[in-house]
Structure to design on (522 residues):
């Protein structure tokens, strides 16, 4: 699965580092939108841009609302973005220093009943081509990729 | 905002712009106020929604769960934005909510949030 | 003059680090626009947002076209942005590792004749409330501030 | 794009979107092509310009300097965007260029860039 993300930290990487508060998340979306706006020959760029922004946004809101709930200080999110060729894709990495994520504790949403939470990671997995989480010495690391 | 205690007919709530984690707590509060004011039948008009995330989905489901206990109902007008509509289909909202073409019914009450 | 910029690196700082190429500069503008979009009670925000974006954009294009002309590698721009209160202002710092800037070599544009270059810093000084350049151990440092 | 060698009347060049450092080299080339094709009188229509920077200003001045040597002229339609218009006034473009209200003259030639 995680094949798009190799060597994703080159000279063309864009880095954004921001306070882990909901009010700044629009900035992340705007950066993604501008990076994608430069990509040519994509059939439905408006929809693609929306879904990629959504995927990244969901990971960010989870960091704000789950990883950093107990923490009072040093709540930051670091995001790196890079356009790659062959296959053409946008690779995004998100870092935080909050609580670890435990996949085993997460339940799939029961779609037919409607959920008051639990749609976030479900949407991310559905709109992105790659989603991986790992614990690194530097912190929690989420890697997303979307083919263009 | 409407505050009468008995509302038999449907109340249309029109969302404009972002319906997301940042605005969710405000939207929760607004819908709660309407439920407390006696509204049991809603039309959530998402036609003008420009960004919808999982917290926005949860806002819709939460009002549904609350009024369903009281034989209430929630209908939904889908966003015009194709991408946002797709998110609602992904979450199978067309099975959970009755999708209606438009909220424009003359004489209906309307709240913009 | 340089009074707005004290203590501009707090918990609310947003950092952006990007390749020093013209094609990525839209991303910087989009970040600034989103940060300003959250500010309330500004009389003509559209014009204000445009002029602040322009000021930052001019410093960036100068870094790309003057500071990094001779350099082949490691051409990066680091930008920090922060909204401050009392007086309410946006503080922006731009860093590069290129050639030093020499104020003494710069001529004011002859406005009545029309110039084929030389409008950049003139515009920056006119649209921002503070503009300072300094050489720091970390590199060249441009500080801009705009009262809101 | 027009390429005839003798053009007596004014050529309107309409700029849309960004007129900035990123697009400047392309715009320089396009205007150069027109000058080489014999155009001496220009109307630069900036009405639809959304972002204008110092490199965009330089694009305008450069074509002026080129055609002035040949008794040419450059008129300008200001951007509709107030902020962009202010930048032109800051640079005193109202003194360097003849400002006209609109480029819409029937029968005139038009190039969109
Ligand atoms: N970044 C994170 N750090 C820690 N826990 C997380 C993180 N993201 C998600 N989780 C856990 O996974 C669960 C499911 O997340 P999600 O699908 O986004 O739905 P929701 O956020 O609505 O609960 C969360 O309730 C939380 O327990
Ligand atoms: N970041 C920089 N590093 C080095 N030199 C610079 C920098 N910015 C501006 N300069 C010098 O100052 C001059 C004036 O800059 P400016 O007013 O922006 O006009 P222009 O870029 O059109 O020449 C430039 O021609 C260049 O010599």
């Amino acid at each position: 699965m995680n094949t798009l993300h190799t060597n994703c930290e080159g000279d063309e990487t864009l880095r954004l580092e921001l306070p882990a508060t909901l009010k700044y998340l629009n900035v992340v979306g705007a950066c993604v939108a501008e990076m994608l706006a430069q990509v040519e020959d994509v059939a439905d760029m408006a929809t693609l841009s929306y879904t990629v922004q959504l995927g990244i946004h969901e990971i960010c809101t989870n960091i704000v609302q789950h990883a950093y709930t107990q923490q009072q200080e040093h709540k930051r999110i670091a995001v790196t973005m890079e356009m790659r060729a062959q296959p053409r894709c946008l690779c995004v990495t998100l870092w935080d220093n909050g609580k670890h994520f435990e996949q085993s504790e997460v339940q799939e949403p029961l779609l037919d009943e409607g959920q008051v939470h639990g749609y976030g990671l479900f949407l991310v997995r559905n709109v992105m081509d790659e989603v991986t989480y790992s614990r690194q010495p530097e912190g929690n690391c989420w890697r997303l990729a979307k083919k263009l | 905002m409407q505050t009468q205690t008995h509302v038999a007919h449907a109340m249309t709530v029109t969302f404009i712009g972002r319906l997301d984690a940042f605005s969710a707590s405000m939207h929760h509060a607004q819908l709660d106020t309407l439920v407390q004011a006696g509204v049991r039948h809603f039309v959530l008009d998402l036609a003008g929604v420009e960004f919808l995330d999982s917290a926005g989905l949860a806002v819709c489901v939460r009002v549904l769960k609350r009024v369903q206990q009281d034989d209430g109902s929630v209908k939904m007008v889908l966003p015009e934005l194709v991408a946002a509509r797709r998110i609602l289909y992904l979450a199978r909202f067309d099975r959970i909510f009755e999708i209606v073409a438009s909220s424009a019914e003359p004489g209906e009450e309307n709240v913009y949030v």
